[in-house]
Amino acid sequence: MSRLAVSSHSLSPIDQELFMPKATLIAAIANKNRGIIATSTEKQAILAAISRLESRNPHPQPLITAIDLLAGDWRLLYTSSQSLLGIDRVPLVQLGTIYQCIRPATNAVYNIAEVSSFVPGLNGIVSIIAQFTPVSESRVNVQFNRSVIGLQKFIDYSTPDRLITAIENGQKFTAIDLPINRTAGRAPAWLEITYLDESLRISRGNEGSVFVLTKN
Fold this sequence. Notes:
Layout: H1 13-29, H2 40-54, H3 62-65, H4 67-70, E1 72-79, H5 82-85, E2 93-103, E3 108-117, E4 124-134, E5 139-151, H6 152-155, H7 160-168, E6 176-179, E7 189-196, E8 200-205, E9 210-215
Antiparallel strand pairs: 1-2, 1-9, 2-3, 3-4, 4-5, 5-6, 5-7, 7-8, 8-9
């Protein structure tokens, strides 16, 4: 059973106080395809549910008190980021599972989007590798360093962890594998962790986007 589908009857009174707004949010984002098919009215309701859950954040200083919870592979449930959801508008492809994998030991973050093709054998991967620098108890600056975009069969992709291991071992891929150069004078990208528990994370970015993820 999913960790997100815990019955409220098994929770302590304190946990129940968190469970209800969390359950409300999970219900609101269900069947919205990460936000791709959410209507304007639904998006407003989702943002309201996000704000209510953020106000009950059990770890308001996650980079200090909950770094172990932050580490791991997170799967995207919902986002308002149009640049990310826009991958689904590319002709002949469909956006699949999206992961954000955080490795605090090396201050690394790996954004990995699986892409399904309507043409057999042409499923792809869009991956962005970055380094993060904590700048507060809940915010990190993010420096994007490398992009790997290609077909899963040429990258030998099977899981995010396997891809990350290959990247960390210095492997180059038969793909569009390029460094990302930061524009001089441009303000750094940042990510604020506004809610974190054992199974759910909410983050807000410098471009105004919100992200809801579950630990894989």
